[in-house]
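Notebook entry, structure prediction.
Reason for the run: the old model in the group folder had no record of what sequence produced it. Starting over properly, with the input documented here first.
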Amino acid sequence: MKKYILMTAVLAAAACTLYAQGEQAEKMAAPAVKVEKMVTAAGVEKREPVGEAMAFAKDTTRVYTWTKITAEQPPVKIKHVYYAGGKQVGEVELTVNSSPYRVWSSKAVWPGSWKVEATDEAGNVLATVEFTVGEEAAAGSAN
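New structure, fully documented this time:
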């Protein structure tokens, strides 16, 4: 009976140790990063997006992705990952030095459907924005 009680106590202690290690690992995980706003635009002036749009004219050659980030423990890095027609065509690493912080990247574009994902250092997708370049661009979109 003593062996049984002793074995139960050892198993309980091991379980508590594993649980505590799991909590500690969770706390040590990448700092929390949150996207407050993410847009595509024709440009960026004075750290603000200019000509925000989700559809651009077919003669558009460059689109900017602007992102406002908050981070628990800056500095942290994020990435803008660009996709055209479902295929990854670019990746830009950006450093978030304080919180909140505004960052942006730009990409040479061509007609078609596009997507940009903002990812954290672990590769988790924080936000996604989609846009098109081409004749189906809505009236009033950026040129």
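Summary: Residues 1-29 form one domain.
The old model has been moved to the deprecated folder.
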